[in-house]
Amino acid sequence: MKRLSDIGVGHTVVIKSFENNDIFLKLMEMGCVPGEKVRVEQKAPLGDPIAISVSGYNLSLRLDEARNIFVEEVS
Description:
6 strands; Iron transporter; SH3 type barrels; alpha+beta
């Protein structure tokens, strides 16, 4: 599995799990739940933050938040 922070712009992935349970509730409230498809839309020039599309809306995540999300590429 890869981390969401390592996924390139334009790629779609599926959320599999979270590394840090402290951030789990916050991410779930934003629509980042296991099984949900996520598309990386943009990355800031220095890589932080990143913009993703999830559950029909755009969301900005800090890189440290994205590192806690394990994903798999959509086949």
